[in-house]
Amino acid sequence: MSLPSTNNKDLYSGVEFSTWLDREELMPAEEYLIKKYLNPTLGIVEAGTNGGRILLRMQELGFTSLAGFDYVPTLIDKAIERDPERTIDFQVQDAIELTYPDNSYEQIVYLQQIICLIENQEDRLKALHESYRILKPGGIGLFSFLSFESRSSQAIYRAYFKYLAILRRLRGDDLRIQYLPWLILGGKFNFNAILDRPPFTYWYRVTEIYELLKSVGFEIVSIGTDAQISTDSLKTTDRELFSEKISGMLYIVVRK
Ligand SMILES: C[S@@+](CC[C@H](N)C(=O)[O-])C[C@H]1O[C@@H](n2cnc3c(N)ncnc32)[C@H](O)[C@@H]1O
């Protein structure tokens, strides 16, 4: 029997390899953010591009200067296969240490919660600093994050968090409750979620990531969850968001 994977890169090279390759269309929130905040005539890099789904759809929407990176080389091979004319600059890179020069892109896309897939706090911060470094002054960034408040709003997850907290206490493990095991892997329930086994994803609190992005140097343009996107009513501060329903992923649009 093979040993369970221990980090998220192993998952994307293995059991999760096809999950995103099998998808083609933009999700409603992605389409909304891209159309509302990005300019098709300006350069863009997408972090964690996988098989290039988002960039290939953006190309159809008229975006011309596109680049994307992922830390799994075999996924980048797939992305290149889907772009035989090599019109998109696909590269193997790790978000925590990029080789792009400072101020390389007018726009950056960090959707599908890429930052939350980085296992430790220091590396998540490094990745945010890197995203800031490669963005041109005045440039726009689209981020999405796993939202702890959104998940905690459901009773079943609150019960699960209590169970995990007890388990961790019994084991003498002080891992924060915002680190959660994967519930579904390769389309199937992950029994390691009951045993609280890694790899984990990190679920940000709204104010925590709002302040972290500002501390890196970003100005917050808009903030909201799927609930606000579906009603075209993103907010400009975390406080404003707290007066509304927090449901689904958390989206933050930033400017450098
Ligand atoms: C949830 S998938 C999203 C894929 C793609 N953005 C999409 O929406 O179709 C996250 C992707 O991020 C990549 N990834 C995770 N952490 C990364 C890192 N530190 N550097 C580069 N890529 C990373 C994974 O390999 C995976 O392909």
Structure description:
By secondary structure, this protein is of the alpha/beta class. It folds into two domains: 197 residues, Rossmann fold (3-Layer(aba) Sandwich); 45 residues. It is 37% helix and 21% strand. The chain is built from eleven helices and eleven strands. The strands form three sheets. A seven-stranded mixed beta sheet has the order 3-2-1-4-5-11-10, sandwiched between helices. Strands 6-9 form a two-stranded antiparallel ribbon. It is globular, with a radius of gyration of 18 Å. The N and C termini lie far apart (49 Å). The N terminus is likely disordered. The chain binds S-adenosylmethionine. The site of S-adenosylmethionine has 19 residues, from helix 3 and strand 2.
CATH topology of the largest domain: Rossmann fold
Please report the number of helical segments: 11
- Based on the coordinates given, report the CATH architecture of the largest domain: 3-Layer(aba) Sandwich
Bound molecules: S-adenosylmethionine
Which keywords apply here?
256 residues, alpha/beta, Rossmann fold, 2 domains, seven-stranded mixed sheet, globular, binds S-adenosylmethionine
